[in-house]
Here is the input.
Amino acid sequence: MSTTPDHAGGRLPRQIAYIIGNEGCERFSFYGMRNILTPFLITTLLLYLPEGQRTLAAKDVFHTFVIGVYFFPLLGGWLADRFFGKYNTVLWMSLVYCLGHACLAIFEHNRLGFFTGLGLIALGAGGIKPLVASFMGDQFDRSNKHLAKVVFDAFYWIINFGSFFASLLMPLFLHHFGAAVAFGIPGGLMFIATVVFWLGRRQYVMLPPTPPDPNAFSRVLRTALLTHRPGQARPGLWIAVAGVLVALGGFAFVGTLGFVIVACLALVALIGGVGGGAWLQMERARGQHPDAAVDGARNVLRVLVIFALTTPFFSLFDQKASTWVVQGHEMTMPSWFHAAQMQALNPMLVMLLIPFNNLVLYPLLRRLGYEPTALRRMTAGIAFSGLAWIVVGGLQVVIDDGDPLSIVWQVLPYALLTFGEVLVSATGLEFAYSQAPASMKGVVMSFWNLTTTIGNLWVLLANAAVRNGTVTGSIASTGLSVTAFQMFFFAAFALLAALAFGLYARRYREVDNYRSG
Here is the structure.
């Protein structure tokens, strides 16, 4: 096992090939099962429900699963940073991942077994999610960090290479060969991904877990909140206490909203209360902690605000595998085509847009005197997602009026949403790594993944709202169907988020936290 980088002279580390290969297979595995999950639930596993309830129930299951996938990065990042290191955590979580796939293939008609499989996949996929990208970043230092920016784009490209073939093929396997085969093939690819990752073990740069640090992020926040200065109030402490009380009090609504929604809202209240309170009193940590630790903690909190403002984007993006697939089933299409296959457009366009942006669009903008910084790109990406949902909402209005509409019309919103994805997700991946202090790489990358959890929380809340008779009555008075109204609502949500993100980004100062050597 290597702890010395193999990149003399600023060369590309050879071990990157194993990580990229692992990611391509793993992403085929994940998207292969994820993209057929909603139609499988509607047509097979949820047949015991009345027909009118299946679609909403399937969307709830899908988005709850996604919430789990993007929540467990918190666990994976913590285990890797504090105990086992990134390599060992990825390897063992990958085996859990494989077991989850096996459950899906075996228990296609057993709800308990199938949902157990989804839980294991959420744990395994979520556990490795923040680590593979940051482990790849560990293979670089400042001598070749310019190559890291290219490799992060290649990393995102290979994700979509795997996703493209999974999205194209798995709906066909589900239709022609059944769920056992359609869920079994992704399981096989996950096993191959695990083997490929293991093969590179002797070449990786493996940074050790971070030992207990008296100046860690959590300790700096605790000092800032609890330090009392004579004659000064402690408003930050009371904000933090309020956040904790709101989080705990929210569990009284489990019976109404369900455990997943309440737990996610509690997490939001906890992070917002403690983080916001510590921000107000951060200067009180100086003297008890080095200035670098205090400045680092403040910068992490600033990064978390950036992350929070991207959550509306993810609430829109992940619905292409649920709401958009359901809409596709209401449109006309050839008999050999399945609505879930439209999702293949997304990774195909990503593979085209990443090189186009890097080789054509960004150089052109620079020649015109406009620097497409990471935060400017992310602002535009959130706005493009809002435009995509205005278009898809317009298509729904036409469908609701009874006019036949070809599924080809979905190409336009897919193109807009994918352009937004490249600007937000591909950019945010490298941005999150570069802004994270050395001792917080895994955890900060976990918070980046948590944005998707919160994004899907907004979807569950919207679904819960439309089960209320008063809400649906108000929607009916607009002349729109519930589905169309939700689509325009999410569009407005994203456009407002883009405005807030752009205003905040203008005051944000980026930092460089790559290793010095």
